[in-house]
Amino acid sequence: MTYVVTEDCIACKHMDCVAVCPVDCFYEGENMLVINPDECIDCGVCEPECPIEAIKPDMEPGLAPWIEHNRQYARLWPNITEVGVPPANAEAMAGQPNKLRDLFSEQPGEGS
């Protein structure tokens, strides 16, 4: 089992999860974080840190596409080990529908 970041993170990008990860397996895109599922040690400490519940255990139904999404972008984006500032409109973006289709950016973030 591993943990994955889901669509809810897009355009919210809270980074509380980064601070608690013992193996630094988060990677930063322009408007989303992902977890490298091959590095995640399944400790679960990141899940309760996400204020919008965007981090899920991969055994939940329907998450197979998100496992691959996380794996793909973890290869392309820089590693992030320090908490940054979420977007100014993060709270307003929480719960918005169709974020993958309408808002997702493939561009990398700054990393740390």
From TrEMBL:
Keywords: 3Fe-4S, 4Fe-4S, Electron transport, Iron, Iron-sulfur, Metal-binding, Repeat, Transport. SUPFAM superfamilies: 4Fe-4S ferredoxins. Gene3D superfamilies: 3.30.70.20. Residues 1-30, 31-60 form the 4Fe-4S ferredoxin-type domain. GO terms for molecular function: 3 iron, 4 sulfur cluster binding; 4 iron, 4 sulfur cluster binding; electron transfer activity; metal ion binding. Its cofactor is [4Fe-4S] cluster; [3Fe-4S] cluster. The keyword NADP does not apply. InterPro entries: 4Fe4S_Fe-S-bd, 4Fe4S_Fe_S_CS, 7Fe_ferredoxin, Fd_C, FdxA, RnfB_subfamily. The keyword 4Fe-4S applies. It holds the Pfam family DUF3470. Ferredoxins are iron-sulfur proteins that transfer electrons in a wide variety of metabolic reactions. This is Ferredoxin.
